Amino acid sequence: MIYDIHTHNIASSNRDLFGEAEKHGISRVLLLGDVSRHSEAQSAEQVREINDDTIADVKKYCGMADGFCYINPALPAGFIREEVARCFAAGLKGVKLEISLCCSNPKLDDLMAVLKEYDRPLLHHCWFKTVGKYGEESDPSDVAILAKRHPDVKIVMAHLCGCGYRGVEYIADLPNVYVDTSGGQPENGFLQYAVKRIGAGRLLYGSDAPCRDFGCQLHKILDAGLNSADLEKILYTNAVELLK
Amino acid sequence: MNGIFDVNISCGRWPFRRLPDSELPELAAVLKNFGIHGGIVRSLEAPFSMNINEENEILLKRCDGMENFIPAVAVRPEFGLWREVSGKVAALYPSYHQYSLFAPETLEMISGLLAKDIVPLIVIREEDERGQNPLCKVAAVPADEINELAKMFPEKPFIAVNAYAWEYSKFTAENLYVDIAFAEAFPALAGAAAETVGPGRLVFGSHAPFFCVGAEVSKLSYSKFSKEDVKNISYKNMERILYGK
Known about the structure:
The complex is a heterodimer. Chain A is an alpha/beta fold. Chain A has helices spanning 17-23, 44-60, 77-89, 109-118, 140-149, 160-171, 190-198, 214-222, 228-243; strands at 3-7, 28-31, 65-67, 69-70, 95-97, 122-124, 155-157, 177-180, 203-204. In chain A, the strands form two sheets. Chain A has a six-stranded parallel sheet with strand order 4-5-6-7-8-9. In chain A, strands 1-2-3 form a three-stranded parallel sheet. The two termini of chain A are 16 Å apart. Chain B is α/β, with parallel strands linked by helices.
């Protein structure tokens, strides 16, 4: 069984997300929304629109998909609380943040309090970028700051290959931080390093499809020379545990 | 050629991190597990070395006795030893070695290589620029410049490695072959590639040991290309380039 913790339901994509997932033996995916549909400073209305689509897609692909609520954390706290509550009531299982506000900003504290209250995880885009960094984009040092402030909230730091060795080190001592393997090129060596440093229990397979390919991204895990127990954790059981 | 031929293999020591299986015998064993029985091999040291001649000598020794693994020695215009180079393929690193593809001395070097039927293999990038060491930012070689260069020598094949899928649209020159190592969204790419590069000019490249070999090989199995197209990409196009078959 394989659970893909990082996919996006993008209506304009001409790819058959579920058909392709099935071909690669992926039994279930987490839909994180069409987070790039608008600018990074989405309005409340735009955030609702993204989440409406995710709620509809989770219903449509019932049994194959879970979904996360997308939030622009720069929006008013009242809206955030209301929108998260609406999405959780509709069955979404956590919150996805992208590049609207750097996650070390204390403005995230209200949202984190809501997540603690519902006992739901956060999945946050993250990358150490030498070039091409967006203004409010978070890197692993920002995730570490957030995780230390909110040790009771589970955080998935996305994009292992973008975070690199240094990224793993920033969160190594923070047990509430998990790392997903989604995105970036199929770089060799990062997963083996992460398993050694933080253990397979905090790593989750993700693809970032349809921006990336299931097959290519899956082989980052399958080719890493891991034992079957670690493979099972990364490919499936960690995700199921996190989202239950 | 038996199995897949890989145009994008490197071996040695990359200065910024230790890559798994980066010595050729170990890497060849990994490649073989995925059905790759030969390829074009570059030096991991050559992009940053101040003495590429020495790196070329080491590369030749590494490939000695490694059947079906063809060394691509590094050449650059200021190092006159390009005139003595032999073999089938030479590697060019215009960004790392900081020269223009259109400088007179570069064109002289390329003309000299082509006169000896040595195929120029142009390395667009070695790493995703976003993940480079902050003290060492190396820009990619512009895809349109490679295309223009290839058009200047239309009778001779050129190979470009490590292009992103979005750069494929620039590669219109019919003598320019492009590898698939950096290209993802592959089912979609099959459509885009058909319009620009096409399976007749795509070649298999793993970019090992930087990338996971299985991830690259898997692209061949789930792409929307026909079986015949996959054969062309896997080895037939390179057979034509290297051996005129």
